[in-house]
């Protein structure tokens, strides 16, 4: 199967999406839909060609992580047959099966494509058509077979009579070809139709003369093509179900899978519990025994063991040490690092700051551009004033620092180990170890030796 050439058609704009963005770059569970197709293609072969047209540079930039991916251009979209023609040089130099996929069919599974190719090879077929059975086949081309199950033709909806329209086996548009017969078929395609386009299914007319044509069936959920926003939502739902089912099988508890949104590219260990209406975005790593309560948003964050994320918290591009509690309604902005055994309470906002082990920011505080040592306590209402109107500045706290309620720390400023501020103080100057300051501006009240 590794000698298969995979061609992915992804040149069309997708007008029914009503978007300035090409259809195949619209995301499903955090990943562009074409990436799902490419991931399946690379499970089969490293010989992959992508036919691109609209917004070609954007597509290439999005796919630059795929090694050995070739691109060909279809500047004018003149049908599926015309799209495959653009890869003619790749096909001509290939000996083996050629698999045709579409960039807007993200639900296909590796097993389905593997079965199609293996059957194509074992039957020495010239053309293999992936079909499916639909309760309502309206709009799809119907599969016409003889009494032996040999495919005779594909009749499009507009050309079908009443009896043919009753057939519920449909053409998915996905094919596997013998490379030499595909080249010959492409040479014989014509655009003698109302649209003036070249249609790939018409390859049947040439290949039936030279070799047998077979079919392989797929689950109807897999063959869904995304053509509009409703299709996009349906695909999102199916992929999200797959993701959630995989995590539950690995020992993750989802209180309500239907209202739990986990993107591709997330890693979750066993014995994690996730409550409803939570959104976990790609790049997030969650270690075992973590509890995430309802209505949380977590993105690109590493959460260590036995952490509890309470209701309504938002955590972005951060790291959280084990046995730490966060929230409710905490906001951890990018480049925040929290140590072990910490407490980050309700309505606390942290930004580009590090919090040492066993330190507490219990509630109603803003901490920006700060380094907080171990076993510190930040009183309610404390503000780390990090911006002077032009630049951001850093505040540094040593270990065992106690900040009284409603203190303002005006950066740049450093507070030494075991120092304290009185409630309501405005600290504008560095504070030495073992010192107590208070007032506006804060002055030395006493210093312990």
Overall description:
There is one protein chain. The chain is α/β, with parallel strands linked by helices. The chain has two domains: 5-218, Spore Coat Polysaccharide Biosynthesis Protein SpsA, Chain A (Alpha-Beta Complex); 229-447, 3 Solenoid (UDP N-Acetylglucosamine Acyltransferase, domain 1), CATH 2.160.10. It contains nine helices and 42 strands. Strands 14-17-20-23-26-29-32-35-38 form a nine-stranded parallel β-sheet, with no helix packed on it. The protein has a seven-stranded mixed β-sheet with strand order 5-4-1-6-10-7-11. A seven-stranded parallel β-sheet has the order 12-15-18-21-24-27-30, covered by helices on one side. A hairpin with a 5-residue loop joins strand 8 (142-145) and strand 9 (151-155). The longest helix has 21 residues, at 229-249. The chain is elongated, with a radius of gyration of 30 Å. The mean pLDDT is 95.
């Amino acid at each position: 199967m590794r000698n298969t050439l995979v061609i992915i058609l992804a040149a069309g704009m997708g007008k029914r999406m009503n978007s300035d963005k090409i259809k195949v770059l619209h995301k499903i569970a955090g990943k562009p839909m074409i990436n799902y197709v490419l991931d399946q293609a690379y499970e089969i072969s490293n010989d992959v060609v992508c036919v691109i047209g609209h917004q070609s540079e954007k597509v290439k930039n999005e796919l630059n992580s795929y090694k050995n991916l070739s691109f060909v251009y279809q500047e004018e979209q003149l049908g599926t047959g015309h799209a495959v023609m653009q890869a003619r040089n790749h096909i001509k130099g290939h000996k083996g099966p050629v698999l045709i996929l579409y960039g807007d069919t993200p639900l296909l599974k590796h097993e389905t494509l593997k079965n199609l190719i293996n059957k194509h090879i074992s039957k020495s077929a010239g053309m293999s058509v992936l079909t499916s059975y639909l309760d309502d086949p309206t709009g799809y081309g119907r599969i016409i077979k003889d009494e032996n199950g040999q495919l005779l033709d594909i009749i499009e909806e507009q050309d079908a009579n009443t009896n043919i329209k009753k057939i519920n086996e449909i053409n998915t548009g996905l094919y596997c070809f013998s490379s030499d017969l595909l080249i010959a078929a492409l040479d014989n395609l014509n655009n003698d139709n109302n649209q003036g386009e070249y249609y790939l299914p018409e390859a049947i007319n040439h290949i039936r003369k030279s070799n047998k044509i077979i079919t392989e069936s797929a689950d109807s959920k897999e063959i869904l093509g995304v053509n509009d926003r409703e299709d996009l939502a349906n695909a999102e739902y199916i992929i999200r179900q797959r993701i959630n089912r995989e995590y539950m099988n690995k020992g993750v508890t989802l209180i309500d899978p239907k209202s739990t949104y986990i993107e591709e590219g997330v890693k979750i260990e066993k014995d994690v519990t996730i409550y409803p209406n939570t959104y976990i975005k790609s790049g997030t790593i969650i270690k075992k025994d973590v509890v995430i309560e309802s209505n949380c948003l977590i993105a690109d964050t590493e959460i260590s063991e036995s952490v509890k994320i309470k209701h309504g918290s938002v955590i972005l591009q951060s790291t959280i040490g084990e046995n730490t509690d966060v929230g409710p309604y905490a906001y951890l902005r990018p480049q925040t690092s929290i140590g072990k055994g910490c407490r980050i309470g309700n309505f606390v906002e942290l930004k580009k700051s590090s919090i040492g082990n066993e330190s507490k920011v219990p509630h109603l505080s803003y901490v920006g551009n700060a380094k907080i040592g171990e076993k510190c306590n930040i009183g309610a209402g404390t503000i780390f004033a990090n911006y002077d109107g032009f630049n951001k500045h850093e505040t540094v706290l040593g270990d065992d620092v106690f900040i009284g309620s409603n203190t303002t720390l005006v950066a740049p400023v450093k507070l030494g180990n075991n120092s304290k501020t009185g409630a309501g103080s405005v600290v504008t100057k560095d504070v030495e170890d073992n010192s107590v300051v208070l007032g506006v501006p804060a002055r030395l009240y006493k210093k312990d030796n």
